[in-house]
Amino acid sequence: xxxxxxxxxxxxxxxxxxxxxxxxxxxxxxxxxxxxxxxxxxxxxxxxxxxxxxxxxxxxxxxxxxxxxxxxxxxxxxxxxxxxxxxxxxxxxxxxxxxxxxxxxxxxxxxxxxxxxxxxxxxxxxxxxxxxxxxxxxxxxxxxxxxxxxxxxxxxxxxxxxxxxxxxxxxxxxxxxxxxxxxxxxxxxxxxxxxxxxxxxxxxxxxxxxxxxxxxxxxxxxxxxxxxxxxxxxxxxxxxxxxxxxxxxxxxxxxxxxxxxxxxxxxxxxxxxxxxxxxxxxxxxxxxxxxxxxxxxxxxxxxxxxxxxxxxxxxx
Length: 316
What we know:
Structural class: alpha+beta
Number of domains: 1
Order of helices and strands: EHEHHHEHEEHEEHEEEEHHEEEEEEE
Strand order of the largest sheet: 8-9-15-6-11-4-1-2-18
Radius of gyration: 19 Å
């Protein structure tokens, strides 16, 4: 086992995605970070990022916007077609795109591009001298991405370090670490994917964009693998699955359709990016605040499982 020995702040930056029209959520996440999690001493490292409001992005020109997003390469042809679908009974709830989900995706993707761009400067400054691989070296620089309804534990840093210390050394090359999420995989598959107490590989049925730690390399991999967008972003993030033990390379597979037994996708886990998840999650979503992305499912729905931004000082 690899033990995290350093006591320095483990993240280069903490990015918090928040819609301008949701000051209530901004107050909530500030309380979570500073009062509950004890991160006030690190306020200079925490930034609010204005999320893209998908409802405004796709409003009066709804019929044309999906086509425009397809033409610029943001949506696949199928994604644009599914976005145009307005009949709730014909949508795959939790997986199909809607205006809010497009805004969510744009928000995270812009942030990934920002994180990936930072790796160039890291490479420039580290190329002249070699360094030992560690979580504090440029090659292991990590960014914590949070949505504004994240419920953090008390003594967050202590809890985070303790959980990450359980990651086996052989898996320390992860590029994406989920701190939150819902996994609809069956118990048998979950057990197969566990690699250490509280640490698991990521199944294709894992869903969240709520809280995760990302490296610049992971950001590049996500940008390459998630675009063009066909489904909601958390589905796209887990779409490249395989099983090396069975000779399977990472291929893009859509999630099992409704009615397919979860056991049929057993032993498959996300290959790109290299990712792990903390189970049980370290961070959960505050459900009482509602969702800006998911509308309540219709009485009979098809089940799957399932922010160009500006930045400002978070503590201001």
